[in-house]
Amino acid sequence: MTPSAKVILLVPAPRRVADIFTATQLERLRALGDLHIHDAAPPTRAEFEALAPRLEILIGQIDMPASRLRLAPHLRAIFNVEGNFLPNIDYGVAISRGVRILSTSPVFAEPVAEAALGMALDLARGISRSDRYFRQGSEKYGLDANRNAYSLHRQHLGFIGFGDLGRAIVPLLAPFHPTIKAYDPWLPPEYIESMGCQAATLQEVLTSSKIVFVVAGVTAQNQGLLNREAFLSMPAGAALVLVSRAAVVDFEAMLDVAATGHIRVATDVFPQEPLPLEHRARKGDNLLLSPHQAGALAQTLAQIGVMVTADAELIARGLPPCLCKIAQPETVTLWRSQPVEQS
Question: Largest CB tally within 10 Å, which of 198, 205, 270, 299?
Answer without folding.
Answer: 205
